[in-house]
Specification:
By secondary structure, the protein is mainly alpha-helical. It contains 12 helices and 2 strands, in the order H-H-H-H-H-H-H-H-H-H-H-E-E-H. Helix content is about 60%, strand content about 5%. A hairpin with a 2-residue loop joins strand 1 and strand 2. Helix 4 packs antiparallel against helix 5. The longest helix is centred in the first third of the chain and has 20 residues. The model has no long low-confidence stretch (mean pLDDT about 95).
């Protein structure tokens, strides 16, 4: 299948939520990985989040057949957010989260790298989402609970609604790690925050107010 036709098929499968079709296409043509990366730039769209989810599935499958190939894709993703690459890997951290969640034995050590990107404001929602996805299934891979708490506290105070929203999302899915008086105090302070954010969960892209997320965390 030519690249243009492959891209059309991948996009169609993403639009239909047919991740099994994407997996099938990736087995036929390794360029499927590049297409998924190219479809993951606008995180306000469901298509992007389905591409992020699909990447986890595809790399899981590839790694099962060839660890070296899986590692090459992971290295490529990490390189995409370096200065040398131009830092255009907008969804790299979310993709790494999905890959590590599925392949903790092979790529669990990379979870230690993800918090390093928190210093870049543009990557903060992605860091929080990835740590949530990893830690909710493999909490042992989040090795520094104190550092996690400090990151989340800073994110809860952020001027950026998307960062605040993903901080609340992280508190919700990592409750045992983030159960402290300081966290609870900051969550309470957001219970009237009207700003709206988009959060991907249960394979759908949801629109929430910060207040709704804060109240949900308090109930949890």
């Amino acid at each position: 299948m030519k690249f243009r036709a492959l891209k059309k098929e991948v996009v169609k499968a993403l639009e239909n939520g047919d991740l099994e079709r994407i997996l099938s296409l990736s087995r036929e043509n390794p360029r499927t990985v590049s297409i998924l990366i190219n479809q993951s730039y606008d995180k306000n769209t469901l298509l992007t989040w389905r591409a992020i989810t699909a990447m986890g599935m595809v790399v899981d499958d590839i790694t099962g057949n060839s660890l070296d190939e899986g590692r090459n894709i992971v290295r490529r993703l990490i390189w995409s957010i370096t200065e040398e690459s131009g830092g255009l890997g907008w969804s790299t951290l979310e993709m790494l989260g999905e890959i590590i969640r599925r392949r903790p034995e092979e790529f669990g050590d990379i979870a230690l790298l993800i918090p390093e990107y928190f210093e870049e404001e543009i990557f903060r929602p992605g860091v929080l989402y990835a740590l949530c996805r990893i830690g909710s299934l493999w909490p042992e891979l989040i090795d520094d609970g104190d550092k996690l708490e400090e990151m989340v506290l800073e994110a809860l105070r952020s001027d950026d609604p998307q960062t605040r929203g993903h901080a609340l999302y992280a508190v919700g899915c990592l409750q045992e790690m983030l159960d402290s008086d300081r966290i609870r105090e900051h969550v309470r302070g957001l219970a009237r925050d009207p700003a709206r954010v988009k959060i991907f969960e249960s394979y759908e892209l949801h629109d929430y107010s910060i207040a709704e997320l804060a109240k949900r965390v308090q109930k949890g």
